[in-house]
């Protein structure tokens, strides 16, 4: 079963996310933690994702790494990455670029954990997220970062051979 | 020292350049390329001392740019700064002629550790 090649546990997702946020946004300080309460519904949602595709001995394998949050977190991530003053307005272009890079780095590190050599897509960003119809949920983890909530989830895409 | 930083993300190029400054390389002259094709053209036009390139970029990837540069006779010192640091990719990078691969997320210290020996 190729889906077994996509086994990534929640602790691994947490470690990757903490490393990404500490190194890229928080000057090495650990400010991202697992959230044990249910994630709230995002009133102004924002999503970024990358897909990874591999051909295994058992057939094609495609996994999506998706990061969901709200627009306020996306704006704070953008000002943080660009080292702009907190609360400063950011352009949509910069927000897409910055939040997409977060998904790209998280996804790239998830890809390294797959038991297959995969090719990573360029990141995509959308307010409402990707069409995940037919995708199979694998794993998710809610993160508290500063005063925001982000949810990192992994999905097995429909062209994967089960 | 004249360096080209290639990444399709403008934000990431800024982060890489900022990290170079934090690592102590604050007097380097830096040009930016936003995809593999632009990187290829820029290297042949400018003969930099070092290239720091993302792997996954539109038009041509970083590894495609590196292979094409070697085929064109360029011996530019070349390193990857990429979100993907699997052993397979490190081996592929080395085989194509890259000197190092820095995995994202990175720190100023990881830049110093990897880039420092290349400058000797």
What report would you give on this structure?
Chain A is an alpha+beta fold and 162 residues long. Chain A is built from 3 helices and 7 strands; from the N terminus they run H-E-E-E-H-H-E-E-E-E. In chain A, a hairpin with a 2-residue loop joins strand 6 and strand 7. In chain A, helix 2 crosses helix 3. The longest helix of chain A has 20 residues, at 92-111. The N and C termini of chain A lie close together (5 Å). The model of chain A has no long low-confidence stretch (mean pLDDT 92). Chain B has a single domain, classed as Rossmann fold (3-Layer(aba) Sandwich). In chain B, helix 4 (87-96) links the parallel strand 4 and strand 5. Chain B is of the alpha/beta class and 120 residues long. Helix content of chain B is 47%, strand content 19%. In chain B, 43% of the residues are buried.
Q: Features of this protein?
A:
heterodimer, A: 162 residues, alpha+beta, Chemotaxis protein chec, seven-stranded antiparallel sheet, globular, B: 120 residues, alpha/beta, Rossmann fold, five-stranded parallel sheet, 5 helices
**CATH homologous superfamily descriptor of chain B:** Response regulator
The tally of structural domains of chain B comes to 1
Percent of sequence in beta strands of chain A: 25-35%
Task: Output mean pLDDT of chain B.
Answer: 96
Low-confidence stretches of chain B: none
Taken from the alpha-carbon principal axes, the silhouette of chain A is: globular
Derived from helix and strand composition plus strand pairing, the structural class of chain A reads alpha+beta
């Amino acid at each position: 079963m190729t889906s077994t090649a996509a086994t990534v546990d929640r602790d691994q997702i947490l470690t990757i996310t903490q490393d990404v946020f500490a190194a890229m946004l928080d000057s090495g300080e650990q400010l991202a933690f697992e959230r044990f309460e249910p994630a709230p519904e995002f009133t102004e949602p924002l999503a970024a994702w990358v897909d990874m595709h591999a051909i295994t001995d058992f057939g094609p394998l495609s996994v999506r790494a998706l990061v969901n949050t709200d627009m306020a977190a996306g704006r704070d991530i953008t000002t943080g990455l660009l080292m702009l003053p907190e609360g400063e307005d950011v352009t949509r272009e910069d927000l897409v670029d910055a939040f997409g890079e977060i998904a790209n780095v998280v996804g790239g590190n998830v890809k390294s954990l797959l038991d297959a050599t995969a090719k990573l897509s360029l990141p995509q960003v959308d307010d409402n997220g990707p069409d995940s119809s037919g995708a199979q949920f694998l794993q998710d983890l809610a993160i508290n970062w500063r005063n925001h909530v982000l949810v990192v989830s992994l999905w097995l895409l429909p062209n994967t051979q089960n | 020292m004249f360096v080209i930083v290639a990444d399709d993300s403008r934000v990431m190029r800024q982060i890489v350049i900022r990290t170079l400054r934090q690592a102590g390389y604050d007097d380097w002259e830096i040009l930016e390329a936003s995809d593999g094709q632009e990187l290829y053209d820029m290297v042949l036009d400018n003969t930099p001392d070092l290239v720091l390139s993302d792997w996954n970029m539109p038009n041509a990837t970083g590894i495609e740019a590196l292979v094409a540069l070697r085929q064109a006779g360029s011996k530019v010192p070349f390193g990857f700064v990429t979100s993907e640091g699997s052993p397979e990719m490190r081996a592929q990078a080395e085989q194509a002629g890259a000197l190092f691969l820095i995995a994202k997320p990175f720190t100023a210290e990881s830049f110093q550790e990897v880039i420092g020996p290349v400058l000797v």
